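Quick log. Single chain, no ligands specified.
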Amino acid sequence: MFTPTRRGSPTASQSVSVAIKEAIKMNINDKINDALCDLYDVKKTLHYTKDKYEDMRVIDLPKDSDGTEFTIRDCLENTISILEQLKEAIYYEQHDFEI
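-> predicted structure:
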């Protein structure tokens, strides 16, 4: 529960809480960056890898064997897009920008 102090200054426990929240956000941001780097590498590798049976790029194969129209590329691009949006949202929140 927030208890206001004189002149609007935060209490020591509020300052610690804010510092912990910022550390968590930074940790999440680092994890998102790591995941994005891995996905970029996988996407690049699959782009240049051909399927040995159909002479097709692996990245353009269906994402599963259920008859889907979606490809591995579609899945990777969607996942990358989601992580980039999360990264951007965290950046704007950390810098007090309105989206």
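Residues 29-94 form one domain.
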